[in-house]
Amino acid sequence: MQRVKQVAAHITGSSQTKGLPALEQKHDDDVVITMAIRSPLCKAWKGGLKDATTDELFLEMFKARSRPFDVRPLVQDICVGTVLTPSSMYPARTAALAAGFPESTAVQTINRFCSSGLMAVTDIGNKIRAGQIEIGLAVGIDSMSQNPDDGSPPQSGLVSCNQAAKDCTEKMGWTSENVAVDFGITRDEQDAFAARSFQRAERAQAAGYFKKEIVPFTVYQKDRVTGEKKLVTVTEDDGIRKGTTKEGLAKIRAAFPQWGNSTTTGGNASQLTDGAAAVLLMTRRKARELGLTILAKYITTAVTGLAPRIMGIGPTYAIPIALKQAGITVEDVDIFEINEAFASMAVYSQRTLSIPAEKLNPNGGARQIATGLNELHRSQGKVLVTSMCIGTGMGAAAVFVRD
């Protein structure tokens, strides 16, 4: 019971201090982040990582490590969030060993669809907070090129007779159209949001904002003519559509004319992507002992469910819970990184939560923790909230405070 009280106190501060000032207090056993990095995010089947095998992506992500010295011998546990990778424990464990982590470093994989990377961070953070480990690495990784999603497995009639259960297996495009119809979100609103996202990402890339968070990946690529494999180094995102305008997006045909009002298109929905990210977490005490720069304090994660047919609005359910757990409000948050699976859900989330446009995905389509913390430091903001919808009808959100 005493340990539970201590954990609660370190999330929300003492009873005398509330809100953001409580979160800014520093304690030796705070869970802190000393590294938040990612790979270039590349278009599936067409981009720079299309020929990289899943274990190669694991290897490159594991090889990227904190400075000013190699912390691999000190990492006690690795948690990998991955959705598509078949038999994921094999590439996770073998790549960790090949990357130089000692045999004593434990590895596990976790899958909660689009929140899997955040769940890895949450798992490691909770283990540190509970005193089970001092240092852990959280990773998120998937290759759509190598492991395309084949959809849900067949359902027993004993399950599918329940409408909500049946809805869990429907296509994501169907859920996007449901959101647009149910909440009156127009094609024009979705195209405007998507155009702004591309424009912000193009501006951020041109300004070099992503350079601090991206780790170059050296992987195999096949020659288009000969099929011969050669090693190449991929250094930047290749899915940002330069010169995108709302008028241009308006010309793209509907992706799902069979559903709803047919407002979802290939221009206002997210691309299929290959990529990875990693976050190194430890106690503040350990970070100070090792002389590592602390980027942020991990505060809390909230996960909740909702109707599967409108799964895209999960952030509107999860974010208020996370803010309440942290003892802060929307006004206290400097940056929201909310996934843009479909513009319909992003528009709804912004509208429902009253998030100012300048605070939502300021560098374009959300890349979550690595991009959010990088931008928080660049802009000298204080609080980051990351959030995403989750297939089958869930939402997740987490709160971080810049140190």
TrEMBL record:
Q: Mind telling me which InterPro entries this protein's record contains?
A: Thiolase (IPR002155), Thiolase-like (IPR016039), Thiolase-like_sf_Thiolase (IPR050215), Thiolase_acyl_enz_int_AS (IPR020615), Thiolase_C (IPR020617), Thiolase_N (IPR020616)
Which reaction does this enzyme catalyse, per its entry?
an acyl-CoA + acetyl-CoA = a 3-oxoacyl-CoA + CoA
Keyword field: Acyltransferase, Transferase
Which PROSITE patterns does the record cross-reference, listed alphabetically? THIOLASE_1 (PS00098)
Entry keyword annotation includes Signal:
no
All residue ranges annotated as the Thiolase N-terminal domain in the record: 31-284
**What GO molecular function terms would the record report?**
acetyl-CoA C-acyltransferase activity
Q: Which domain of life is it from?
A: Eukaryota
Residue intervals of the Thiolase C-terminal domain: 293-401
Record's GO cellular component terms: peroxisome
GO BP annotations listed: fatty acid beta-oxidation; phenylacetate catabolic process
Which pathway does it take part in? Lipid metabolism; fatty acid metabolism
Write down the Pfam families for this protein, in alphabetical order: Thiolase_C (PF02803), Thiolase_N (PF00108)
The similarity comment for this entry is: Belongs to the thiolase-like superfamily. Thiolase family.
Annotated protein name in UniProt: 3-ketoacyl-CoA thiolase
Supply the source organism for this entry.
Ephemerocybe angulata
- What lineage is on file? Eukaryota, Fungi, Dikarya, Basidiomycota, Agaricomycotina
